[in-house]
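Many introductory courses stop at the sequence. We go one step further.
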Amino acid sequence: MKELIKKVPLPISGLMLSIAALGNLLRPYGENLRNILGFISFTLLVLLILKAFIDKKSFVAGFNNPIIAGVMATIPMTMMILSSYLVVINRSLAVMFYMMGIVLHAIYILAFTKKYIINFSLATVFPTHFIVYVGIVCASVVAPVHQMQSLGVVIFWVGFLAYLVVLPIVTMRVVKLGFDKEIAKPSFAIYSAPASLCLAGYLNAFAETNLLLENILLLFAIGSFLIVLIKMKDLITLPFYPSFSAFTFPFVITAIAIRTLGRFTVLANFALFFAIVMVSYVFIGYLKHLKGKDLYLAKV
């Protein structure tokens, strides 16, 4: 068991988050299906928590890697999403788990900022920065479950303003420097996540929405989704890396946002189908690794 835990790559947290979010998205198709996905996500969370105690060095090394450090923010994001599963068990426990995820994410933002922003270098900027600074909007998406819409509204504005700041910086990095190592290239898919997450958070946390802001978020969400889809024809041909986790949550949250909006049924169904395909593909890739097959874990 100890060896299995050590083999679990930290970027699997991105897949863990997507499975939890996908479970909520697929809830209309069956509560059992949702519970299975929730159980898988929770199991991965337990493995990562155990890894933190058994293999502390890997967490330190991960935090020293700008891409993996960004992806690690999906751990508290997952806690926020999984809190929605705990409501049926115990509402107080669910709220505690939800708040714990928010607090941990806030602390992580401060730690990440101290390491990578105080001593700023464009070379250490990656699309994974979106996860750190915009990912906290997961709290807005889940806020209605805990009757905490007011908190969700505040966190939406924090995440949305962060998106406006981070977007041009990440784009400048991608345009100027590109990705010098193949293992970093899948992170481009994360571009599809922040606008969709903001849209989903906005629609869930606000009792009344502003049509102009809603349409602006929608434009950015669909636009970034289409750009990433075009790029996927090249990205999907790469050898399987742990960074393929980037192919999961961005598409799941895009499907959630478009379905929540309720305007584009065909696009919503396509986004859902594509998200299921990509989550399944990455999940199988990780299973092969955990069963002992090679998975290249090169440093960025």
